[in-house]
Amino acid sequence: MILRYSQRLAFAVAAAAVALGSAVQPAGAQAAGGTMAPAAAPKVTIVSPKNGEVVTGPSVHVVLAVQGVEIAPAAEHRPGTAHHHLFLDVNVTAADSAIPAGVAGITHLGKGQTEYTYDTVAPGAHRLIDVLGDPNHVPLKPMVADTVHFTVK
Ligand SMILES: [Cu+2]
Prior knowledge:
alpha+beta, 2 domains, binds copper (II) ion, 3-stranded antiparallel sheet, 6-stranded mixed sheet
């Protein structure tokens, strides 16, 4: 009786594994064949200014783009969404801690903005880093970031 039950259980587990395997395999085949995009890792791009670009100051307009993640206001606290954080001429903060607010050089685009204008950026060389953070402002894991160097004339 006990043996029979365990045999049935083993069969059921094996059948489930086969069913799972057959369900997973076509998706993998499609991705490999390029007919369906696999779930892409999130990616962020600083569209403007471009790396190496010389821009006319004093204001600098920043345009951002993402792939594979939804940008949303932090206040919505929706899992899986993110918002941009700009680090202008300052280093990125710790990967496992919330990005601080009220710190010079760090800007939260917490309303889900995908563009930002610095009113005054001094002439010279600058480095801009964009880091995606979750609704709690903690950088996504693995960190999703982009860096450009630009010059204000
Ligand atoms: Cu934030």
